[in-house]
Fold this sequence. Notes:
By secondary structure, this protein is low in regular secondary structure. Helix content is 0%, strand content 11%. It has no helices and 2 strands. The chain has strands spanning 48-52, 58-62.
Amino acid sequence: xxxxxxxxxxPTPVVRPPRTGNPSSTPVPDQAGDLxxxxxxxxCCRWARVQxxxxxxxxxxxxxxxxDARFVRYPRLPVLRCAGYEEPV
Length: 89
């Protein structure tokens, strides 16, 4: 047996701290006209993009995650607080 009881042919797992979809605290905006309650802040954020699959599924992608490791590429929905939230221009 290798380290931590794993067979020697398997690498030792790397333990990383969990990443959260809400790295800070920005409250939900007061003007919730375009806010989808199932999606949260992502539905009206300038950094959010909708990824559609061939099977008609939709995934909300945060483009801020490409440059800032504090953000998750596909956050768990609904996002109620986010440090990176910005209204569309």
